[in-house]
Input
Amino acid sequence: MDERRFEITDQPISVEEVTRKVTRRECGAIATFIGTVRELTEGKRTLKLEYEAYKPMAVKMFAEIEREVKEKWPDAALAITHRIGVLEISDAAVVIAVSTPHRKAAYEANEYVMERIKQIVPIWKKEYWDDGTAWIGDQLEQVPYRKAVKKEGEADD
Amino acid sequence: MIKVLLFAKLQEEAGVHEIELEGSGRTVQSVKEQLVQEYRLPSLETSMAAINEEFVKEEDIVSPGDTVAFIPPISGG
Output
């Protein structure tokens, strides 16, 4: 698999394309997660979102997450594409595909990847509302940000 | 020279994405202090730091040629 399995793009994401990257003869399950732009958050109406990334570091962190996944689920294969730029309601912001021999690991690993993206990958979203804009941080996501960065050899939370 | 990168809210607060600073053998903390003096940057306090695309701690040393990125709370996904 020499194609790029971890990408940041300013173009619409093809779910099929991300899924294809993890399709293997030895897998019996592919779990695909699509993170989409939500219109209503606690009653507040989002008009659009803008995503920004520290691209080279984000791709490195995707690879770091893959290393973590391989430790927990050695037979898993992973591909992630995250979109940046301006996104409209219901656009796909991120697509995560995990393939494994059996389905349980695919579901579990996929959820793990999304959690870790929210903790260690330098990507930011800016909300646009009727009455203003704001860069969103982990204050809304309840992620213990400083604790989220694991050094090698440190245990899980 | 060291290159400093600012993103998202930090970039808006500074009005620039990239800053060049003098100095070698200084800590991430001292870089932060200089940035606060020159640009204020209220969001720097809650930001993480990375040197050459790896997360670091405030007491870590920045070398000439390094790229130091300050990463405000993230919100990918």
The two ends of chain A are 32 Å apart (CA to CA). Residues 16 and 46 of chain A are 27 Å apart (CA to CA). The helical segments of chain A are 15-20, 55-72, 103-120, 145-148.
